[in-house]
Amino acid sequence: MSIIASNFKTNHTRKSTASFVQEVNIFLESNEISSEVYLFPSSTSLNSFQTVSNLTLGAQNAYATQNGSFTGEIGSLQLDEFSIKTILIGHSERRHVLGESQEEIAKKYAFYKELGYKIIYCIGEPLEVKETGLEKTLEYVYEQFVGIDTNYENLILAYEPVWAIGTGVTATNDDITKVHSAIKSKIDKPLLYGGSVKVNNVREICALDGVDGALIGTASWIVEDFKQIIDSTKDL
Ligand code: PGA
Description:
Layout: E1 3-7, H1 14-30, E2 36-40, E3 55-57, H2 76-80, E4 86-89, H3 92-97, H4 102-114, E5 118-123, H5 127-130, H6 134-143, E6 155-159, H7 173-186, E7 191-194, H8 202-206, E8 213-216, H9 223-233
Parallel strand pairs: 1-2, 1-8, 2-3, 4-5, 5-6, 6-7, 7-8
Helix pairs in contact: 6-7
2-phosphoglycolic acid (PGA) is lined by residues 7, 160, 165-166, 194-197, 215-219.
């Protein structure tokens, strides 16, 4: 069964998020689709949404704290208010644009693991590493597991090559299967692919060996497209 996740990043308002959630919810319910679907809206758009059991709302980010003095951050108390128990950790934009170190990421992981959160943990190499070959790519990716308990029961992994995120350049099926089978041989967890997944390639990607679903940014922000993505992978 496919796992399909939408990362809104810095898109959608509180209002448009609410109607997006409602539409996806109705779509899943009325078509009796049992795929595991996750939505990660901006933190200002989180709410106590009533959804079917296979639609889950999560946080794109939060600080490793319940509360405190961390200007601009949110903590677990703000997520408790909306019964959020799912979080993205290690996303490439947090690592490379916002400068989160592996140490900070591991701390965040440990904190939210302790609280029993479902964690979608992202890994992936930049272009200059990819260009040095598969072995170096895997070495780089394995470094992103330092300090991470990969036996954690509520863990989903997402392989997202940095060069494929938001660029329109999807990794080839060959790239994806090689990296996925290497990761899977070490870590027995659901593994999503992310990076320029589109309406017209999501099915092919999700059907690849070692791919358990997709984490999608750009192509998921229009609800009709996202519904199509869910529909085209529902039987995988
Ligand atoms: P993209 O983003 O689909 O826009 O490439 C994927 C992600 O960052 O999760």
